[in-house]
Amino acid sequence: MAFSFKSLFKSKKSESIENKGIINSLGIDLGTLNTVIAKPSGDKFDLYQIPSVVAVKKDDPRKVLAVGEEAKHMLGRTPEDIIAIRPLRKGVIESIAQAQSLLIKAMEIGKKDGEKINRIVIGIPGDSSEVERKAAEDIGKNAGAEYVLVISEGLSAAIGAGLPIAEPNGTMIIDIGAGSTDLVVISLGGITDIETVRVGGDDIDSNIVSIVKEKYDVEIGVHEAENAKILVGMFHCSEDLEISETQVIGKSSKTNRPEKIIIDSTIVADAAEPIISEIIKGLNLVLKRLSPELISGIYNNTVAVGGSSQLRGLKERVCDELKIPIVISDDPMTVVAKGAAIVAAEPRALEPDVRIKAMK
Ligand SMILES: Nc1ncnc2c1ncn2[C@@H]1O[C@H](COP(=O)(O)OP(=O)(O)OP(=O)(O)O)[C@@H](O)[C@H]1O
């Protein structure tokens, strides 16, 4: 799928908004776990984040009772007739009505009282089908935006990270989220290749739960697994990374009593192994298809973003396997929304001078 940005905003509607000079725009990263909202404010961004969780009536899931933080607090504590669910699975909108509520909430958070949002840009996984793109566009329009553009999270991340995407040499983004990983090659302002691997941090969490159950016969919650991952996690790699450990309380399958267990970095690395293997496989496919003209650009300009890129050992593991030095973004969770906000605010976001200005 190759598309260029230059024509994206050439709709009559966007020109008329631009001519009146009244553009209120938002960039939204509609993620599996978190929804991040970026609002251009002068030459910076106002940033907001809400959990991608919606609480609904069990017998009527279209009836949304709470969204975001409020819904997250209901998880596991709700009366039996209320359930808290995630509208996206593996980066893809699974339930339109609930994703709609999430987006409406995101837009409410991102606007000031009485303000109308004219233009939103939403980042979605790069390999989304036309139907999935259209679903994202429709929920944006139904949520009240006049103009909605849906772009690949990877391209958005590259713009948000300030990568030289307009140059012919090529750049690459490795975006490892909760549910999916986007590998995107960009040159001359267009996407030249995308590989989406449907694995991410969520899979690491559920693998930790399984390993702990097998090793200790203790059941732990997925949130405890996620916390342990964030605290002590790493990927296996050739470097001797420091092994640390954390204590987690789970439920003994034998006694049904609380039991304390230790999770150390190697348990997380074992749990993360199938995930990093899939990602390396995806990167191998991208490299196989890559033209020789782009290899030096990729060598010099590959950036990892997304919450799961923060696991130690990623840089080393990718270099061990592929001989490509990568940089881990120091702003991994908000670059997609920032890139989307840059495009929403500035249709000529691809032009390097404009982009540099927007990123200052
Ligand atoms: N410091 C950390 N170390 C390791 N993993 C982390 C860290 N912080 C967050 N994560 C993980 O990052 C993931 C969330 O990342 P992100 O917000 O980029 O995903 P998302 O946009 O919701 O998902 P997707 O892009 O797949 O739709 C979760 O799996 C979370 O556990």
Keywords, please?
360 residues; alpha+beta; Nucleotidyltransferase, domain 5; five-stranded mixed sheet; 12 helices; disordered N terminus; disordered C terminus; binds adenosine-5'-triphosphate; ATP binding; ATPase_NBD
Walkthrough of the structure:
The protein is α+β, with helices and mostly antiparallel strands. The protein folds into three domains: 12-52 and 88-161 and 334-359, 2-Layer Sandwich (Nucleotidyltransferase, domain 5), CATH 3.30.420.40; 54-86, no CATH class; 165-329, 2-Layer Sandwich (Nucleotidyltransferase, domain 5), CATH 3.30.420.40. The protein contains twelve helices and 18 strands. It has a five-stranded mixed sheet. Strands 13-12-11-17-18 form a five-stranded mixed sheet, with helices on both faces. Strands 5-4-6 form a three-stranded antiparallel sheet. Strand 12 and strand 13 (190-197) form a beta hairpin. Helix 5 (153-160) crosses helix 11 (335-345). The longest helix is centred in the C-terminal third of the chain and has 25 residues, at 265-289. The chain is flat. The model is unreliable at 1-21 and 354-360 (pLDDT under 50). The protein binds adenosine-5'-triphosphate. Adenosine-5'-triphosphate is lined by residues 29, 31-34, 91, 177-180, 200-202, 226, 229-230, 233, 306-308, 310-311, 333. One of its GO terms (biological process) is regulation of cell shape. Keywords: ATP-binding, Cell shape, Cytoplasm, Nucleotide-binding.
